[in-house]
Structures are given as C-alpha cells and as structure tokens.
Amino acid sequence: MTATRALAALAVTATAAAVLMTPAAAQAAAGPATTAAAAQSAPIVWGPAYAPGRRAKAAGKLIATGEDHADLPTAAVVTISGTVQDSTRSASCGWAVFRITYRKGNNLPNRNHWVRDCSYRTPKHFTLKHHDVYQVELKVCAEAKAAKPSLNCLYAGTWKTLYLSK
Hints:
Elements: H1 2-20, H2 23-30, H3 32-39, E1 44-50, E2 56-68, E3 74-86, E4 92-102, E5 110-117, E6 124-144, H4 151-155, E7 160-164
Antiparallel strand pairs: 1-2, 2-3, 3-6, 4-5, 4-6, 6-7
Signal peptide: 1-28
Keywords: Signal
Protein name: Secreted protein
C-alpha cells in the first residue's frame, strides 16, 4: 500500500507541475532550438494580386524574423520573395510596388520599392530584404515602361497590407 500511495503522490505532483508551468518556462525548458524557431514566423503567402483588368499579377511569400515589441513593434528582418508578371501584349509593364514602413529612432517613415516586368507572360522573380520593418503593403499596376511607377500607380487605389507587426 505504501508504494501505491507514493506513486499516487508522484502523479499528483507531476500533474500540478505541468499545469503550473508558464509558457515562458515551458519554452525555456524546451531549450534554445525552440526559442530560435519561435523568433522566425511562418511564411506569409500572399497573392495572387492583380492590377486593374488583370493586366499584371504578383504573388509570393513574406518571412518576418526577430519581432521586437519593446518600444515600437517591428521585425528585425523581413524577406519578401515572389514573382511579378506582365499580362499585356502592348508596350506596358507589370509593376509590383511595395510600401515598406520601418523604424528609424522613434519614427515610422516609409519608402517604396518596386519590381517591374515587361516581358509578356514571363514572370520575373525577385527577393527583397529590409530591416526594422513595421508594415509592408502591396499594390500591383500595369503601365508604360519607365524608370519608376507613375504617380497614378502610387497614389490611386488602395494598398493591400501584407504584414503588420503587432
């Protein structure tokens, strides 16, 4: 009978320890491999996103690593990869325009980064990497070949949010 009581007490103690263990303690007990894996989020698959009239399309994935929520919530590194494709037979090009909001001190400025493809139905592959990112937005346009997207592409219509650090 004594052995049965000892085993019952051990089972109750183990159950209580498992219930009382916090998620942070469980992660620390699991080891550094689990902690490193938690720092990198799962890939966010986005797209296909189309220009008006389906004249261009873009699709891909986004990976955010090292999210920091201490002062301003940002990801240490955001990697965006994918394809942009022109679907017009004319001299137009397909544009994937990304508006990236990043942390600079205590401010959140943004900048545009674009990828252009002018080859009919031949997708162009790209990879972009940015640091201290707060938000990533996308707009797809189809317009004439130029050094940069037009003001109409940048300011008309709405942006699609791909990533927002919370």
